[in-house]
Amino acid sequence: MRKLTYFIACSIDGFIGDPTGDGSSTYSYVAGEFLEYLKAEYPETVAAHAWPVLGLEPGTKNRHFDTVIQGMHSYQLGLDIGVTSPYAQMREYVATRSLAKSPDPNVELIADDLVGRVRALKAEDSPLDIWLCGGSTIAGELIDEIDELVIKTYPQVFGAGMPMFGTDFAARDFELGSVRAFDNGVLVRSYTRKR
Ligand SMILES: NC(=O)c1ccc[n+]([C@@H]2O[C@H](COP(=O)([O-])OP(=O)(O)OC[C@H]3O[C@@H](n4cnc5c(N)ncnc54)[C@H](OP(=O)(O)O)[C@@H]3O)[C@@H](O)[C@H]2O)c1
């Protein structure tokens, strides 16, 4: 089985964005040593249209993921700026019940049985894993399918905002894998789900 990894950016107090989901207050931290790490270690998680801006070479190989899953609200942010395939370097799946037809040949829509579809993707034979991109709603629905968390924590406190998981309370145990601290105060932690 390959893993479903929720690779996500958040504030110190665990919010993935402001109450509307906007995380733009953190963008200035995506620089220097941390940006070089992202480009080297997780290049496929950089949106395709940002590759030239951030200096990623065309054809840079995926390191961790060959498949990405997004909720419709997250995908909509790309559509709003005319981007129909934000992560063209992977197979893209978008969960939606409202969009009838995919706007891009690389993007497959999931309207029914989200958990079943994710389980089928996890059962595929591939050396690379599946990136759960977010947002909060879809992460809440898939919380018990998540095998790994990779949390990029920016040194900001929001006080309120969009939670990492839009779901009800339940304590779930994870084992700490790695912790990496960057010179600008960003922290990247990985955890594996204890089953
Ligand atoms: N900090 C980060 O790293 C990060 C990463 C990603 C996203 N975000 C933020 O997250 C925000 C969006 O999060 P969100 O919670 O509002 O929305 P979301 O999870 O991105 O999308 C929710 C939508 O996905 C569809 N959906 C959810 N469950 C479904 C199911 N079981 N079957 C079919 N479709 C399903 C529905 O779309 P329909 O209404 O079309 O049916 C639902 O309205 C954005 O503002 C974005 O900036 C932050």
Describe it.
Residues 2-188 form the Bacterial bifunctional deaminase-reductase C-terminal domain. This is Deaminase. The protein has helices spanning 32-41, 51-54, 72-79, 114-123, 136-141; strands at residues 4-10, 15-17, 65-71, 91-95, 107-110, 129-134, 148-153, 162-163, 174-181, 187-193. By secondary structure, the protein is of the alpha/beta class. The protein has a single domain, classed as Dihydrofolate Reductase, subunit A, CATH 3.40.430. The structure holds NADP nicotinamide-adenine-dinucleotide phosphate (NAP). Residues 8-9, 16-17, 21-23, 71-74, 77, 95-99, 110-111, 114, 133-138, 141, 162, 166 line the site of NADP nicotinamide-adenine-dinucleotide phosphate.
Task: Give keywords.
single chain; 195 residues; alpha/beta; Dihydrofolate Reductase, subunit A; 8-stranded mixed β-sheet; two-stranded antiparallel ribbon; globular
Instruction: Please state the average pLDDT score.
Output: 97
Bound molecules: NADP nicotinamide-adenine-dinucleotide phosphate
The helix count comes to 5
C-alpha-based Rg, rounded: 16 Å
Oligomeric form of this entry?
A: single chain
By CATH reckoning, the class would read: Alpha Beta
Instruction: Give the beta-strand count.
Output: 10
Taken together, the total number of domains comes to 1
Give the % helix. 10-25%
Organism: Streptomyces purpureus
GO molecular function: 5-amino-6-(5-phosphoribosylamino)uracil reductase activity
InterPro entries: DHFR-like_dom_sf, RibDG_C, Riboflavin_Biosynth_HTPR
Pfam family, one: RibD_C
